[in-house]
Design goal:
It is a single chain. By secondary structure, the chain is of the alpha/beta class. 34% of the residues lie in helices and 21% in strands. Helix 6 links the parallel strand 6 and strand 7. Bound molecules: S-adenosylmethionine. The site of S-adenosylmethionine has 24 residues, from strand 7, strand 8 and strand 10.
């Protein structure tokens, strides 16, 4: 059996009882970064052996993990934070498991975009998750493709690109489009900034060096 197990995006309490049990009972925990996950596992006194599963060994490692499951082992996949497969390694392993006829169970749990979307106060009945925009090639094309989008849009963004990204969307969508930036959710410096794209941009221009983890939410086109 392959279990996909969400882990906290900040606050270590944000993990389910079932996730802890699965991590404890699994034969091996496949981690995006064994040292990062070591902190969480140690915190909960989970001594299950760990192996790495990250963007650079995904394909080769997927076959190896599937073979272990086919021998009767239980593998639990976790990423550095949140739900594996959501802007994190996981997709290829789930697909390989399905193709190999191996059972996959995905536990519900922490992910950054859901609390950000709900906290934004923007319509959440229909939305589109865009994840990270391409860093260079294809970035403008991707952004322009959203000009007519009427659903609420959700992006992941890094601290050193958030201001530039806001500038780009102000140019494309206009300064008055409703937006929200959710920073450091569930952590000590959690902050949710709501307003127009331009007012949110002004908020961050007051910081010399922007830090933290960000989810950007932008209202869809209306009228
Ligand atoms: N798998 C994760 C999930 O389920 O949300 C996402 C992993 S992705 C590599 C990391 C990005 O998620 C960050 O750059 C940021 O955009 C977002 N993120 C993760 N933790 C966050 C937090 N505590 N507050 C705000 N955004 C966060």
């Amino acid at each position: 059996m392959l279990y996909i197990v969400p882990t906290p995006i900040g606050n270590l309490e944000d993990i389910t009882l079932r996730a802890l049990r699965i991590l404890r009972e699994a034969d091996v925990v496949a981690c995006e970064d064994t040292r990062t996950s070591g902190v969480l596992l140690q915190h909960y006194q989970i001594e299950t052996s760990r192996t790495s599963f990250h963007a650079f060994n995904e394909a080769a490692k997927a076959d190896h993990l599937i073979a272990r499951i086919q021998r009767g082992e239980t593998v639990a996949l976790i990423s550095d934070a949140g739900t594996p497969g959501i802007s994190d390694p996981g997709f290829s392993l789930v697909r390989a498991a399905i193709q190999a006829g191996v059972s996959v169970e995905v536990l519900p749990g922490a992910t950054a975009f859901v609390p950000a979307l709900v906290a934004s106060g923007l319509p959440s009945d229909r939305f589109v998750f865009e994840g990270f925009l391409p860093v260079k090639k294809g970035r403008q094309t991707r952004m322009k493709a959203l000009v007519e989008e009427s659903r609420t849009m959700v992006f992941y963004e890094s601290p050193h690109r958030i201001q530039k990204t806001l500038d780009g969307f102000i140019t494309l969508f206009g300064p008055d489009r409703p937006a929200c930036v959710a920073r450091e959710l569930s952590k000590k410096f959690e902050e949710v900034v709501r307003g127009s794209l331009s007012s949110v941009r002004v908020h961050f221009s007051q910081e010399a060096k922007v830090r933290g983890e960000f989810v950007l939410i932008i209202g869809g086109k209306t009228g």
